[in-house]
Design a protein that fits this description.
Elements (H helix, E strand, L loop, with lengths): L14 E3 L5 H8 L3 E7 L3 E3 L4 E9 L5 E5 L4 H7 L11 E2 L1 E11 L8 E3 L2 E4 L9 E5 L4 E11 L2 E2 L3 E2 L2 E13 L2 H8 L1 E2 L3 E4 L3 E6 L5 E9 L10 E5 L5 E6 L5 E7 L2 E8 L9 E7 L5 E8 L13 E8 L10 E7 L4 E7 L5 E6 L2 E8 L6 E7 L1 E2 L3 E6 L6
Parallel strand pairs: 3-17, 6-31, 18-24, 25-32
Antiparallel strand pairs: 1-5, 1-15, 2-4, 4-11, 5-10, 7-14, 8-12, 9-11, 12-13, 14-16, 14-17, 18-21, 19-20, 19-22, 22-23, 25-28, 26-27, 26-29, 29-30
Length: 396
């Protein structure tokens, strides 16, 4: 049996405020202001269980950084861009933060020839993702926890190579509209990559022989539903592994110890919540389970069922000074679903929001000024949006 992963998912991002410097020079300088190290919760891992990593991203520069979370596997960004659309097409944005993990045996016997390299991939969100922007002050750290599935190298003769491995991670960020955000807001979106030093882990042979398999179908017709993301989680709902359904709509997870597992299926390209889940319990008497998932058209009744997008807003007065402490009230409605959010800008006049793409209306409340209303048209697609808002009122 080849210990190969069945899924390759991959993405990119971060941001930095800066008061209108030359964009190219500022971006080059910003790339030097982020350092990365990784730590592993469990240094010895039996196959097929994953590694739980913590990213330690440190802002070593003098200005605050805005970072996009969560980092994804690089292939996920490629999959999310429709093939018929240009990444810079009108009305859409693209980008994000990705984490590519490199896994290599610490040593390989001389007589062994590697036929299949070791593999590692960041697992996607089990349910609908919740991306957002976080502010990292100068000289401080931001930590992000990720789950990474690992598969050992395979030597010729179909022999997995167990033992010590070195793991290193590369964090990368890129946006289709970085220059526009910098020009319009004075917020520099950090673009570049940073790589950690390697850490050592041990991959051990599997300890179980259990199997969970099944199929995903369209409920009305019974036809197979392919390219659906199937996630396996433990009793505590911590993700363990993921696969995409094949052309026949089928999936399987093998080498599982006895225990209770949750299986979740969702459309990885949908902007509304499609997740459905079931549980399976494996025992020594019943080491295998078969599940079938029937997909129904999604019904959206609440804002949390729709994919939100990170948005930066910068509020200034007529003199161009930050409207420190200004309060924002944002209203969005599709006619069926409505959402109201409240936020307050920081000392730079900046607020980070999570908004559903489409038209939203913001009311700005600033001390000593009358209420003012503005419109935000949040673009479709991934990445972030940025809006400069200038008050008619000036306190001078």
């Amino acid at each position: 049996m080849r210990f190969r992963t069945k899924l390759a998912l991959q993405v990119l991002i971060a941001g930095l405020y800066c008061p209108w410097p030359v964009a190219g020079a500022a971006r080059a300088e910003a790339q030097q202001r982020l350092s990365l190290s990784v730590s592993v919760d469990q240094p010895s891992i039996p196959f097929p269980f994953p590694a739980r990593l913590t990213l330690h991203l440190r802002n070593t520069g003098p200005s605050p950084l805005w970072l996009y979370r969560h980092a994804r596997d690089p292939s996920a960004l490629q999959r999310s861009v429709p093939a018929e659309e240009s990444p810079n097409g009108p009305g859409r944005t693209f980008g994000g933060a990705t984490l590519a993990v490199r896994l290599e045996p610490a040593s390989v016997p001389k007589e062994a020839q590697i036929a299949i390299p070791a593999q590692a991939r960041v697992l996607e969100s089990v349910g609908l993702p919740h991306p957002r922007l976080v502010r990292v002050a100068p000289g401080t750290d931001y930590e992000e926890k990720l789950t990474v599935h690992l598969a050992p190298a395979v030597a010729q003769g179909d022999h997995p190579v167990w033992g010590r491995y070195r793991l290193a991670a590369t964090y990368e960020a890129q946006y289709s509209n970085a220059a526009d955000i910098h020009r319009n807001l004075g917020v520099l979106v950090w673009e570049g990559e940073v790589t950690s030093s390697p850490v050592e882990i041990e991959l051990r042979p599997p300890t179980g022989e259990g199997t969970i398999e099944g199929s995903v179908i369209v409920n009305a017709s019974g036809r197979p539903k392919y390219h659906e993301l199937v996630s396996l989680s433990d009793r505590s709902e911590r993700p363990l592994d993921q696969v995409l359904t094949g052309d026949d709509g089928r999936f399987s997870f093998t080498h599982l110890p006895s225990g209770l597992y949750w299986v979740t299926v969702r459309d990885p390209d949908s902007t509304v919540d499609t997740a459905v889940f079931r549980h399976a319990e494996l025992t020594s008497a019943a080491p295998s389970a078969s599940l079938q998932f029937a997909f129904l058209p999604p019904e959206t009744y609440e804002p949390k069922q729709e994919l939100h997008k990170p948005v930066l807003v910068r509020v200034t007065d007529r003199a161009g000074k930050p409207a420190r402490g200004a309060r924002l009230e944002i209203v969005w409605s599709s006619g069926t679903v409505a959402e109201t959010l409240k936020a307050q800008v920081d000392d730079d006049g900046v607020a980070a929001l999570e908004l559903i793409p489409g038209r939203a209306f913001v009311t700005i409340k600033e001390h000593g000024c009358p209420k003012e209303d503005r419109r935000l048209d949040v673009a479709e697609g991934e990445g972030i949006d940025g809006f400069p808002l200038t008050l008619d009122c000036s306190r001078e």
